UniProtKB/TrEMBL annotation, chains A, B, C:
It is a multi-pass membrane protein. One of its GO terms (molecular function) is ammonium channel activity. Keywords: Ammonia transport, Membrane, Transmembrane, Transmembrane helix, Transport. GO terms for cellular component: plasma membrane. It is found in: Cell membrane; Membrane. Residues 11-403 form the Ammonium transporter AmtB-like domain. GO terms for biological process: ammonium homeostasis. This is Ammonium transporter. Its main location: membrane. The chain crosses the membrane at residues 12-32, 44-67, 105-124, 129-147, 167-188, 208-225, 237-259, 271-289, 295-313, 325-343, 355-376. It comes from Mongoliitalea lutea. Belongs to the ammonia transporter channel (TC 1.A.11.2) family.
Amino acid sequence: MNQEIFTINNLWMMVATILVFIMHLGFASLEAGLTRAKNTVNILFKNTIIPAIGLLTYAFIGFNLMYPGDDFVGSFFGFAGIGLSLPEGWSTSEYNEGYTFFTDFIFQAMFAATAATIVSGAVAERIKLGPFIFFSLLYVGICYPIVGMWKWGGGFLDALDIPFYDFAGSTIVHSVGGWGALVGAFLLGPRLGKYTADGMKPIPGHNIPMATIGVFLLWFGWFGFNGGSVLTADPGTVSLVFVTTAIAGAAGAFGALIASYLKFKTYDITMVLNGVLAGLVSITAGADLMGVGEAAIIGFIGGTLVVFAVVFFDRIKIDDPVGAISVHLICGVWGTLAVGLFGDLAGMGQVWSQLIGIGVVGAFCVGTSWLIFFSLKKTIGIRVDEREELEGLDINEHSMSAYPDFATKD
Amino acid sequence: MNQEIFTINNLWMMVATILVFIMHLGFASLEAGLTRAKNTVNILFKNTIIPAIGLLTYAFIGFNLMYPGDDFVGSFFGFAGIGLSLPEGWSTSEYNEGYTFFTDFIFQAMFAATAATIVSGAVAERIKLGPFIFFSLLYVGICYPIVGMWKWGGGFLDALDIPFYDFAGSTIVHSVGGWGALVGAFLLGPRLGKYTADGMKPIPGHNIPMATIGVFLLWFGWFGFNGGSVLTADPGTVSLVFVTTAIAGAAGAFGALIASYLKFKTYDITMVLNGVLAGLVSITAGADLMGVGEAAIIGFIGGTLVVFAVVFFDRIKIDDPVGAISVHLICGVWGTLAVGLFGDLAGMGQVWSQLIGIGVVGAFCVGTSWLIFFSLKKTIGIRVDEREELEGLDINEHSMSAYPDFATKD
Amino acid sequence: MNQEIFTINNLWMMVATILVFIMHLGFASLEAGLTRAKNTVNILFKNTIIPAIGLLTYAFIGFNLMYPGDDFVGSFFGFAGIGLSLPEGWSTSEYNEGYTFFTDFIFQAMFAATAATIVSGAVAERIKLGPFIFFSLLYVGICYPIVGMWKWGGGFLDALDIPFYDFAGSTIVHSVGGWGALVGAFLLGPRLGKYTADGMKPIPGHNIPMATIGVFLLWFGWFGFNGGSVLTADPGTVSLVFVTTAIAGAAGAFGALIASYLKFKTYDITMVLNGVLAGLVSITAGADLMGVGEAAIIGFIGGTLVVFAVVFFDRIKIDDPVGAISVHLICGVWGTLAVGLFGDLAGMGQVWSQLIGIGVVGAFCVGTSWLIFFSLKKTIGIRVDEREELEGLDINEHSMSAYPDFATKD
């Protein structure tokens, strides 16, 4: 192909990479904003170290697990070795018409940490730092790339008669995080004082501006997450993906606004913020397949679902401080299914393939995250002690406070 | 035209789209920062839902009102139908040499919500949420695209003998918001305790870091707002626009610094922050016509104007918590006029055309926003009751606080 | 060269320009977050006005000092005149194959303010505003471009037998700021109460979320700072630079995590945040020369160094509230040296050239910043009085508070 188009494609992929990078600040802000001031340093610490873990483990092992290439050894597992080694023609369209080898690596590497970041939100305010970092190393470094290989690395989900379809990762990225979040939140148990004899007691987030900053940065970055998943700068496809991404986020906000107003008779900003994310997660699997109306419907349903899911998980006493399971797991599943119900690939065969993908990924992620969390729980323990949880993790794990100059209510 | 240039143009327009998107976080942060903690959730709620409204109404109706195309029915009004329908060749340079149909839509859609966001700042801390959302739906969905059509959709302002000139929207975007802000602030009346028998009592913003984040994000996004308005990636024009945009913002900061120091004998950061925005709004109408020196003069005067405008509106007891009218209306008018005074088009004929544009847009926007706000005022009411205003809108409209963990002074 | 590649190159340079721009918000957030609430307005004021100073002085004089071009008058000093004047063919590849004249100017102009921003952090919480702005005008307007000319403008450091190498400015940008920071912090003396008879008393930053936002925005912008320093959109080089930049930041976080845990037995988030920056500063001189493993080593060592440097400067009672000297000077020197130790240019000859560059730049910057700060100290004074320092600069210099609605502990 010509050098001009190759250079443009690669430029777009690099810009998309940076946009995905800033999503990590989005996750950090959202999670910090929706939890209590006494645990803020802990949350920011985790969310700073997780992208660092993601980048380093992905360079060391993840990239070669996810894209085994010529060293492919099977449909479920392949591995091209430790570390990055430059293939012939790595900086030209010989490697790929959309990007160089390094662009390929760095774009995918930015995604990798997302799985652990999602888990982070659900286990916040009570998990021990060390075990969580250990979990992240394994989940991001090994589990995520194995799942990714099944679809994006040419594995068995891509080889089904009607291939499983997941454009930018409703299942491959978001549900992977979501399943880990579910297992983590379940094994940890709820925060002290959340579910009492008198019923569920909401624990409000301490900084709504931070949470809002987080959601806007995530939406901003999602244009790179979905737009970059086109893997070229093709004008038609990327602009379509921008539109479906924008519309689904907006419709998600409305869906959550209406559902939460009907349910709670108040304008709940945390629901609207999660509604935006719900819309975005929902469109992610099929962002390149849908029209404007379909994107609006898929996003709107996602925004509605998230409200009911939050209520549901509270009812079964799975305590998820930021709603990560509702957003990333429930809407990840919904968005993946929506590929079979709307748009260019709609049909019962596709629904079936989507269900296979959802199920197999779910089984693997529940299994591996259970194995890791459960082993940690039975050995070094995963939950801070009661005094530490009440005083806050910041003072106990980090010997400091996020806001030392301000008087707090507690 | 060749596919390479088309692809580059479209890529730049998509990047510009995202930059305009993040301006909505800029507006949200600025407005939240410059108002009181007890109304923060309310402000963030509005500023999250407004872009969602903008995107959805623009897809449903606004885009086809603003760019009626072949279905053009007159110089003042045209309409191409409900919803988006893909024209032939939508993804190629057949549609436009600078962008695909979807890029066209999404870039313009990101602008659309700005009009309501500007109003939001001026009516903050006392307007009812429901009526404001209703106003936004009509103002963003109908009034803004009609005005936009007059110039950018080929309407009568573009057809004057010496065409009205407004490169990126000092009048078409900023003054549209500014006039609505003026009408809203006037009809609502000032916040309780602002203008007392003892004179004007300043009500300081509660979070200056948030306000600063807001202004920087707006400046950041303005490179897309102005740079994208070139509508191609033409190296000469876009780089000139970047320079005039950067210089005008910087000069606006200095203008406001000097004017406010002379007037108040202190270094007032809110004036400097609004001075940056004043410079940016001022250059917006002629960002592609000015040299570096002219951009500096226009921005500097804008920064000076905003200081006197803020004082003036306080004198006539129009209470504008964030200075939105001074920034967007006064500097929007100034920047539009400056096109007749400086740069490539300077001349009395152009001044006259600019005045026509300013006047007609002003009359229409005052008329329509008055009609909407006044109808709402006489029916369901637009202002929260006194108790709610004193307690804060957050606890009353949203049943929550933005900072529940912190002790407040009130 | 062909117009397509020129247009792509220029587009990337403009995007990189905006990324560097947002680093100023990163610096503002980081510095505000790591200092006390009573000085927040002052810090944000400085960090808003400094980029404005940078842009305006660079247009007026700096650009022509740094790139004297045909008007070059020597190896140490050259000057092409006051203001910007458009050269023939400014908007085409005649000017440069990578960018237009205006892109050239604006990309470099965004860098210019960085030198003063770095100083700002080290002198925070006790310097008078007026003298600091005066210092910034001279340091950014004159000293920085003179140093820059020595390497990037074709001066003597570029003309050594083995040319001094500094890809994106570990020495030319970061150490210039770092030396000024060292001199400023030394001449000002420590903040009241920092070093007492009972030893060093830490003064914790008041807003860790702000500091975290700052570091992520700096990392985000660094992809433009380093990536744009390629000066074209060349796919191979830019993508390599992205990877080394990302990996060095991640490794810096780990280096600081491990070093600070071993030293302090706690998970210190401020060390990890500064570790990210340390990694980024360290890779900046050789971001285009290193492989992935080398980038990791350089970043990791940078992250480790910053922990020991912070302890060291506290031991010699140089009070640097944000760790700017440790990050930008120590790691700037380290990164510059690393070019002689790792990667494509490694060798003792290169080490020697790097040492010359480090030494000459250091001598000049210490000399000029000493001259400016010392003259100011002996005339109008550079330090606020004791009462003002204790009460905070916000109320005394700006007549306002950053958080008026919140109850503080002091």
